[in-house]
């Protein structure tokens, strides 16, 4: 194994970052319902992302940063990443969520790089706009192909770990495909399924 790519929300982090953002606005249930539809593959990811971010317009960016500094990481995340890196793997995070979260996660968990989206803010508040690396259903697959080319890694040396429909595109480019506490739509694409919130179980199921 040379390349390991993890999703962030509900994989490395225990929850959905955008749902935490929506809570102080009283919109958690509304945003969570859209998130759930997208992760089940019942809604286009780009449409769901822009719709949800639009609902966050006006939230103080300082509150966004505070929330990201206090996100709950998944049990075993740090230990699993450390073990993978010791075995010589490049460990990367792909997220349809946000860099304020994945950059902090990189500092805490120790993965090598993060690719995610950026919340536009102006005058200290979210504008309701978003842009970045992971805006579409195909984004993770597109990025993993580019990484494999840069690193000289093929699909037999690649592991991907995720939980939702927008992880399917990267699952198409890896021989080791881990569905972690995942939606049914992703389990169908996986060859390893983990149903409990403990990421170190991956280490027992893969050959490093």
Spatial arrangement of strands, main beta sheet: 4-3-2-1-5-6-7
The total of beta strands comes to: 7
Can you name the CATH architecture? Answer: 3-Layer(aba) Sandwich
Q: Over the alpha carbons, how many angstroms does the gyration radius reach? A: 16 Å
The CATH superfamily label reads: HAD superfamily/HAD-like
**Total of helices:** 10
Tally of domains: 1
H/E topology pattern? EHHHHHEHEEHEHEHEH
Which shape, going by the Cα principal axes?
globular
What is the strand content? 15-25%
Q: Helix amount, in percent? A: 40-55%
Which stretches of 5+ consecutive residues score pLDDT under 50?
none
Distance between the termini: 5 Å
Mean pLDDT: 97
The CATH topology is given as Rossmann fold
* CATH class descriptor name: Alpha Beta
Q: Sketch the major β-sheet.
A: 7 strands, mixed
Helix/strand class = alpha/beta
